TrEMBL record:
Any GO molecular function: transmembrane transporter activity
Protein name: Major facilitator superfamily (MFS) profile domain-containing protein
Compartments it resides in: Membrane
GO cellular component: membrane
Region spans: Disordered: 1-44
Name of one Pfam family that matches: Sugar_tr
Swiss-Prot/TrEMBL GO biological process terms: myo-inositol transport; polyol transmembrane transport
Bilayer topology annotation: Multi-pass membrane protein
Length: 629
């Protein structure tokens, strides 16, 4: 449901022309039509476009009567839901109602206080995720010696990797696949609460362990907090957000996960010099692991003050409660009624897909449209791990120590990595919708490969000061590129690429893919580092970044700004045809841009892109003719 609403963001046109006055009302339709032609889109096309205004107003009134709500309000709301950009011409709306819709269109970040509260809670939930992932970074400088696995043997190397990767083994094999079941029974808020509870308890448990296998078990159970939470919070945010900023709020997950990663390094630094105080097997590393419980507890205290997801409430038949929830997170009753009614309509559309779970699993691979979407989600999730970022996230302190840093300086350098990862995630707010998911990745993978090679080859520099400086530079440059590209893209892309009826299964598959390869990377890095040396280990992941470039080039269609029906067309193109076209397109781009040859662009692959190009040419010709005249 949330994506059905999201795909109509591109339909929400600028409503500044003619907000007040008869001249403005008469010009709104013609302006929107011309704007739509230049975009290659039909104005305000959605699932209600098949009905007349009178019909949808009747539908809204009947819906309100059925569930004991205001029929006049829902009658108007249904008409607005049908044609969101044309509210100026709706004489039955009051000036205050029009002004609220105008402000929503022009100033989408002027939100209700309740929605800001929800954003803060969701952001803190993402920070829980980041801290859960990285407090082990500093702790592993100490716990191996206490548990008798510090000696550089093959067995100990694999044990350290197993302990560090334990949560992701749980996520990929068990907990991610529980997300739908938990959300169905516990609600969005309930799932967030209990997964944060599990995170808090297991973090404290990790700090109380007394041998390596006990620590492994506690971290394995931490996966029950990480997996479902990583699926639920982005969905919860998207279901509560207004359409115009839904993409940005989904992006908040990555931004504040990066903040949590950084804050995990802060905790490692804070407790690094804590003496044992007669605590068995040390105190510092125990405090590092236990500190990740703090943001989880804060989320638990906040989440019940936030409204429940309106979509979840409607799925349970609680429509009046859904309207009340929307009323808390929208700035006017009309907006709340509009979103309640439109959500109801989309749920009716969704109910037409009464497909059993295992049939959905089968069809994500056997139906070409679904299969291409799943392959795209797999590519971005796989490469989020095999680009090498979490090697640095989990082992940066060990890497910096290997390069010649002291333990304290290694932790400081790791904190610098975390800060860069957070700060440079912020520009993704603007770049992901401006440049597109595919374009960001095609530019970033070669750069990340070069910077990993820079960091790896720097281990051959004989001078220690120069060596540590170049290694840190390579890692930081790599992180800057990652944070603005492959960091934010995977969860956003995976939520967009799935067809309606297999969306939940596709997201479970995508999330499990992410955590499975996270587990593989975390498990194998210590042994890889020992077998290949730092130069070879960094070179290994540099090579995978070039593989990622080719995977994106051949297998990843662009999803930016496309509606659901347009995505169906895009993902229904055979993979071999898409790969062949993109190879020709790259060769054409190199000849035109790099070699400066005067050759024409090749014809766009997708129908709606060809329509947009031809419409744009028509508009330009029309304007040129008017100028000449």
């Amino acid at each position: 449901m949330d994506q059905d609403t999201q795909v109509h963001e591109s339909r929400q046109h600028d409503t500044r022309l003619g907000f007040f006055g008869e001249e403005g009302r008469s010009s709104a339709s013609s302006w929107d039509a011309e704007k739509s032609a230049s975009d290659g889109l039909e104005p305000d096309v959605n699932v209600l476009s098949n009905y007349s205004e009178a019909q949808v107003r009747t539908m809204g009134r009947n819906y309100a009567f059925k569930y004991g709500m205001d029929p006049d309000l829902f009658s108007k709301a249904a008409a607005v839901a049908r044609r969101p950009s044309f509210f100026n011409s709706m004489e039955f709306l009051s000036d205050d109602e029009k002004e609220s819709l105008f402000e929503e269109a022009e100033h989408p970040w002027r939100l209700s206080g309740q929605l800001y509260w929800l954003i803060v809670m969701a952001s803190m939930g993402a920070a829980v995720q980041g801290m859960d992932e990285t407090v082990i970074n500093g702790a592993q400088l100490q716990y191996p010696s206490y548990f008798g696995i510090a000696e550089d043997t093959e067995r100990n190397t694999w044990l350290i990797g197993l302990i560090n990767s334990a949560p992701y083994l749980c996520c990929s094999t068990i907990s991610c696949w529980m997300s739908d079941w938990l959300n169905e029974r516990l609600s969005r808020r309930g799932t967030i609460f209990w997964t944060c509870f599990v995170s808090a308890i297991t973090c404290i448990w990790s700090g109380l362990t007394n041998n390596w296998w006990h620590l492994f078990i506690s971290r394995f159970f931490l996966g029950f907090g990480i997996g479902p939470k990583s699926s639920t919070i982005p969905v919860y945010s998207s279901e509560c957000a207004p359409p115009k900023i839904r993409g940005s709020l989904v992006m908040m997950w990555q931004v504040w996960t990066a903040f949590g990663i950084m804050f995990g390094y802060v905790m490692s630094l804070a407790f690094y010099r804590v003496p044992s105080h007669s605590i068995h097997k040390g105190l510092g590393w125990r405090l590092m692991l236990g500190s990740a419980a703090l943001p989880a507890i804060l989320v638990m205290l906040q989440v019940w003050f936030c409204p429940e997801s309106p979509r979840w409430l409607m799925g349970k038949g609680r429509h009046r409660e859904a309207f009340e929830a929307y009323s808390r997170i929208r700035k006017s009753p009309l907006q709340a009624a509009r979103d309640t009614f439109y959500t109801h309509v989309l749920l009716l559309e969704e109910s037409s897909y009464e497909v059993p779970f295992w049939t959905k699993v089968k069809e994500i691979f056997t139906v070409r449209r679904n299969r291409n979407g799943v392959v795209g989600a797999w590519v971005v999730m796989f490469m989020q791990q095999f680009c090498g970022i979490n090697v640095i996230a989990y082992y940066s302190s060990s890497i910096f120590k290997e390069s010649g840093f002291s333990e304290r300086d290694a932790l400081l350098a790791s904190w610098g990595y975390g800060m860069i990862n957070w700060v440079f995630a912020l520009p993704a707010f603007f770049s992901i919708d401006r440049f597109g998911r595919r374009t960001l990745l095609l530019f970033s993978f070669p750069l990340m490969s070069v910077f990993l090679l820079l960091a790896g080859f720097a281990f051959w520099i004989p001078d220690e000061k120069a060596r540590v400086g170049v290694i840190a530079l390579g890692i930081y440059l790599f992180t800057i590129v990652y944070a603005s590209s492959e960091g934010p893209v995977p969860f956003t892309y995976s939520a967009e690429c799935a067809a309606l009826y297999v969306r939940d299964v596709t997201m479970s598959f995508a999330t499990a893919t992410c955590w499975f390869f996270n587990f593989i990377l975390s498990l194998t890095w210590p042994s890889l580092l020992k077998a290949f040396s730092p130069q070879g280990a960094f070179g290994w992941y540099a090579a995978w970044n070039m593989v990622g470039f080719l995977l994106v080039l051949w297998l990843l269609p662009e999803t930016k700004g496309l509606a659901l029906e347009e995505l169906d067309d895009v993902f229904d193109v055979p993979s071999y045809k898409h790969a062949a076209y993109q190879t020709r397109h790259l060769a054409n781009w190199v000849q035109r841009t790099v070699l400066r040859r005067d050759i024409p662009k090749i014809e766009p692959l997708y129908r709606q892109q060809r329509v947009a190009v031809h419409n744009q040419e028509w508009v330009e010709m029309k304007h040129e003719g008017e100028h000449i005249e």
